[in-house]
Amino acid sequence: MALTPGRNSKLESHLAEAGWTHAQLAGAVVRVARESGVAHLLGIGRSHVSHWVRGTKPSGRAPQVLSEAFSRRLGRSVTPSDLGLADAGDLPPYASLWDADTLTALAGLGRADLDVDRRDLLGKATYSVAGLAVPGSAWWRQQERTSRPSTDRGSRRIGRGELDAVHDMIALFQRVDQRRGGGHARSAVAQYLMADVASYLRCSYADEGVRRGMLAGAGELAYLAGWMAFDSGEHGTAQRYLLLGVKLAAEAADAPLAGHILRALAHQALDLGHPGQALGLAQASVEGDRYARAAPRERALLEVVHARTCVATGDGAAASAALLRAENELAAAGEDDDEPARVFFFGEASLAHETACALRDLGDLKGAQDEFRRSVRTRKAATFTRTHAVTLGYLGEVQARKGDVEEACATWHRALDAMEGVRSGRTRQVVVNLRRTLSPYRSRRIDTALELDARAAVHLMGTH
């Protein structure tokens, strides 16, 4: 069929390849927009798609949302330019982050994150399932061969002192995140990464160990910025930082760090309802040197997330085996291990929490309740406040599902107590979920439920 002048032939050909009608594409756009928090696209319908096919340019975040919808449908990366649409903003496309120059990508992401005028654009960046495909072995080998000599022979020379200072700052930010949530100090993490550490990456180094150590430090900070964004519910931003963190870790030849960040990407994909992609990422995290060179405590962390992705994809036997390996690895961890500071939080309480989540998803509510209780009992709540609050929230949910509503309400009150001073999208979601669970009891005018619901409503108003 001949195309009339002005029609978007690229968009039209992709529609044909996907086998979509205009209405079906509109539905796919709305689904991606809802997941990504892009409110202005939630009302998209068939007529909008018809206008785009006829040559009208979609506005705002529509080009990125359209490209993500087609990427999911076709199982490959589809960019806005592939669809004949101008890309919105100059953020690096997901697929190109694996191959982009690290410093260029870091600078672009940093400008968007720290510029007040563009922060809102980045905050609404679309989470991309297409961006989750882990590169093959040739890519990893190429990253390790990447050389990053000084661009200026007269530039500052970086030694062990600067590297130690970076490690000190990472440890500080990690503890703030664990105690107060991703909503605290994320801008400070991004600022330190962009203003200080990025400049170190352009300097000369005392030796090769310092150079690789500084790349790994930048990777840890990118991971932390991404994890904090994930905790705050900014999933597109989080994904960009995490992907960049993997690339930095690969350039540093720090396989355990790369595995750690792949595990975080798997956790995010699982929470967002993409179990197949989560499983692929989790499997990549426990492959080769990413697992073999990791300390026992880190291997335990990788295995519990791997277990949860196995549960989500219906492989209970593999999940049980992974949980057993996690228990054995954590039991093997010792005080004298040369383990990275990033796993300081993972101990008996964390293992119990993740085990409880797996049992809950398998339908074993009693087992989940026992493990959540063990997690609450063994955690240092003052140090790991955010996770403590989330664990209590999940415990209350399990108790409610078992029919123990009075006990659930008491647990949820404890969760709300723990949330004081915490800024976290995950704790906020706990409160949203508990109000949803309480809905039938509110309608029956049960005093305990009404009191808790009123308190929860006040909490949500205070976290906007």
From TrEMBL:
InterPro entries: TPR-like_helical_dom_sf (IPR011990). It comes from the Bacteria. Gene3D superfamilies: Tetratricopeptide repeat domain. This is Tat pathway signal protein. It comes from Streptomyces chumphonensis.
